[in-house]
Structures are given as C-alpha cells and as structure tokens.
C-alpha cells in the first residue's frame, strides 16, 4: 500500500540573512510612500489652505458655506460668523463651515 502514500524527504533548511529581511520590508515601505504621496500629503495641503481661508475672512466677504448657504458676512466672532442671506435675515454659522469666498458682486447675479 505504500504506492498510494509518497515518502516525505527532508530538505536542507533555507539560509536566512539580512537580504531576506530587507526584501520582506520593501513592499511595506513602498506602500507607505505611495499612501503618503497620494492620500496624506494632498489632504494636509487642503487643510492648510482651508485654515488660511478661514483666518482671512473679513466683514463684507461673500461666502458659500458647506451646507450650500450663500451670503455676505455681516459680523465676525472668534468661532462663529453671521451670514446675511437676504435683507434682514442672518444665519449664524461656524467659521470652519465656510467653504469658499466668492468674488465681490456674485450675490447680485443670483
């Protein structure tokens, strides 16, 4: 019955060395570099640009918030701003909710 079961022959143990450790870590290092340059770095750049935009807000700027509300800044606070969306109607929103600053006169076209 031994013709159904193959005999296991022992092989010599493979040599382990420093080169095997480096080639094992190389894909992880490449993956980390690609992740950094394609995802993390652009996100950090966008965050810096948004922070700069929020810090440069001033009274009278025409803005669009993240919720899509367009209006003119009527009052500035440390964390919140008042946005006038029509005559006599003001909405209080967080400064960080401002998505874009539009050119002057954009609201008149709407």
Automatic annotation (TrEMBL):
Key word NADP present: no
Localization, UniProt: Cell membrane
Transmembrane helix keyword on record: yes
Topology within the bilayer: Single-pass membrane protein
| Sequence intervals crossing the membrane | 21-40
Task: Give one GO biological process term.
Answer: protein transport
Q: Could you tell me the keywords of this UniProt record?
A: Cell membrane, Membrane, Protein transport, Translocation, Transmembrane, Transmembrane helix, Transport
Tell me which family the UniProt entry assigns to this protein.
Answer: Belongs to the YajC family.
The identity of this protein, by name, is: Sec translocon accessory complex subunit YajC
Q: Which organism is it from?
A: Candidatus Thiodiazotropha endoloripes
């Amino acid at each position: 019955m031994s013709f159904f079961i193959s005999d296991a022959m022992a092989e010599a143990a493979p040599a382990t060395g420093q080169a095997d450790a480096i080639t094992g870590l190389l894909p992880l290092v490449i993956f980390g570099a690609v992740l950094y340059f394609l995802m993390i770095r652009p996100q950090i750049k966008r965050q810096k640009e948004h922070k700069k935009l929020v810090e440069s807000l001033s009274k009278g700027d025409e803005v669009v918030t993240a919720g899509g509300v367009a209006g003119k800044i009527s009052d500035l606070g440390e964390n919140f701003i008042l946005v006038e969306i029509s005559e006599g109607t003001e909405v209080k929103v967080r400064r960080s909710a401002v998505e874009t600053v539009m050119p002057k006169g954009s609201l008149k076209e709407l």
